[in-house]
Amino acid sequence: MSEFDNYIELFNNWKIISDTKKKTCCNFIIETSQARELSMEEIELIANGLAKSGSAWKWPNDVQPITDVCSTGGSGSMTTLLCPYLIATQKIKIPQVSVLGSIAGAIDTLGIIPDYSYQLSHKAMLKALRTAGIGHTLNTPDMAPADLFLFNQRKAQNAVNLPDLVISSLLAKKISSGLTKVLFDVRVGPVGNFGTTIEEAEQNCRKLIQVGRNIGIDCTCVLTNHDTAPIPLFGRLESLNVLWSVANGIDLDAWTLSHIETNIDIAAIACESIKGGSIRGWTESIRKSILNGDVFDLIRYNLNSQGSSIESLEMLITKYNKTKKYAIYSPSDGYINRFDFVNLRNIFQQAYFESPIISGFDSPLGIILKVREGVEVHKGDLIMELRVNNKELLKHTEELKKVVLIDKKAKSPPQKKIFKVIKNG
User: How far apart are CA 334 and CA 397, in angstroms?
Assistant: First the structure.
């Protein structure tokens, strides 16, 4: 048995081995992945091993068909928050298992709603699926605990963006949550964990699809453009406000509305992969579900099934809309070239680190971009608004100005939102 196999074997006894052994095991896997590209077999072994550190959920016939929409990481998107609700309106169940994100993923956004339970047992998830059609949970001590441990080690070592381990982690959660068909939003850009270019991301997608096929999971990858900002807002409260607006038919700006259209497209692709039919037909059906209030009802059912209420969400949104926003102005003349998403993510992570909330469910910082790439600005023009829950965080104002990269020459951003769809087979 090789050294690699010896460490993978530790996952079978994860609950009884010491933290020292756990760290040694995870460090070996991280260092190996940093040193070389892992083979398909090794990625598969890690995925299965992580899943075997806990129990695997199974689902009765009355909660079928079943799927999930997850992402490979990347800032500024509603896909893991909104798409599951859109898909669930089409009578497809969604048990979503996630780890905490860096800015505004689904579970860490929903987790800031008062009384929302963010760790579900199998029994609680089954109840949520039966009553709401959708449920959200973090990894639990019984649900791939080694995956969470390894992820935290990767975060501590700034090794989150290792594609082979991203694949292992994503598939481990799908094995544990009993899924055989999954859609992945592969965010291509500076902070995308699957690559900064379409070519690199596509190569990793094909690897994900192949490993998924080997372990019995049918993967669909949608490559989305994150080289430019897909949506003009960043922050958990900001994402909740957009979700609320979509569910209630509240008008949105053209930039945000364009991103909602991308979410509808992705949800339609997921529905087609699960139930067949035409993507155009699913798109029309999803639009109707938004207009007739089905999305609002699903959110209400989901909140109730996880211990909260639509009233709690509404109070949070009302408070958010009354919160003071601080204007940030352009430091110079020129054209908006691009946004520095790496710096933006670092600022958010620092704000979370400075937050007194221990659980990780907080929204200390939020920004709303007021200009798009390619737009001409003059010194003193409004370029973004900043929301903070503590005035101490206003110290990040000067750093946030540097997020907006201004050039003397005009540069039109690419308009494509979805680059490519890659399916199993």
Answer: 20
- What's residue 1's pLDDT? 61
Q: At what angle do helices 198-214 and 163-176 cross, to 10 degrees?
A: 40
C-alpha distance from residue 313 to each of 33, 112, 119, 245, 319 (Å): 41, 9, 19, 12, 10
Note the pLDDT of residue 358: 52
Please report, for the chain, the start and end positions of each structural domain, with discontinuous segments joined by +: 61-316+417-423, 323-407
Amino acid at 106: A
Q: Looking at residue 142, what is its pLDDT? A: 85
Q: Is 274:181 a contact under the CB 8 Å cutoff?
A: yes
Class of domain 323-407: alpha beta
Hunting for tokens 């892992």 — which residue is that? 38
Cα gap 26→199, rounded to integer Å:
29
Q: How far is CA 374 from CA 132, 199, 338, 401, in A?
A: 42, 25, 8, 17
Cβ-proximal residues to 154 (8 Å cutoff; 6+ apart), any chain = 26, 30, 160, 162, 165
- Write out residues in the chain with pLDDT < 50, as ranges: none
How much is the pLDDT for 419? Answer: 87
- Domains 61-316+417-423 and 323-407 are alike in CATH topology: no
